[in-house]
Design brief:
Strand content: under 5%
Number of strands: 0
Radius of gyration: 14 Å
Shape: flat
Largest sheet: none
Structural class: mainly alpha
Order of helices and strands: HHHHHHH
Distance between the termini: 25 Å
Number of helices: 7
Length: 147
């Protein structure tokens, strides 16, 4: 699939939206740690042409460091990883699906105590699909081979 710059920007914005959707899982546990939030801001700034890719990439690394620091809180860790992949989408579009997958993982871990994990995860994935232009679905939601 050949992508132009506007598609790449759309994927970065979508990845940031997916990560922001679950960012409360991180911010509730670590309210003083702004690294994932800054990664989302970097992804969006890059998509607007207001930030260099290298700066977005640095924000991605910082969000992944926040995830590493949050490893004892699975939902928070996954939310920070989603933010890191959102920012990394500026570097390579292949990070966008990872942002969505980590967001769904955050929902699964966050919902594990209270509700039906499969239902909540499916609802998150449906929400993600609704946020993205259909012509980008194949890239964002690659088909999984059957085992």
């Amino acid at each position: 699939m050949k992508l132009d710059r506007s598609d790449h920007e759309a994927l970065a914005r979508w990845a940031a939206d997916c990560a922001e959707h679950v960012l409360p899982f991180f911010e509730q546990k670590f309210p003083e740690d702004l690294r994932p939030r800054r990664a989302l801001e970097a992804a969006r700034a890059w998509a607007q042409g207001a930030l260099a890719m290298s700066e977005a990439r640095a924000a991605a690394f910082a969000a992944h460091a926040a995830a590493h620091d949050a490893t004892t809180h699975a939902a928070a860790c996954a939310a920070a990883r989603a933010a890191g992949h959102a920012a990394a989408t500026a570097h390579a579009v292949t990070h966008a699906p990872h942002a969505a997958t980590y967001a769904a993982t955050a929902v699964a871990h966050g919902a594990a105590e209270a509700t039906d994990v499969a239902e909540d995860t499916a609802r998150e994935r449906a929400w993600q699909r609704q946020q993205l232009p259909e012509h980008l679905h194949a890239l964002a939601f690659p088909a999984r081979p059957n085992p």
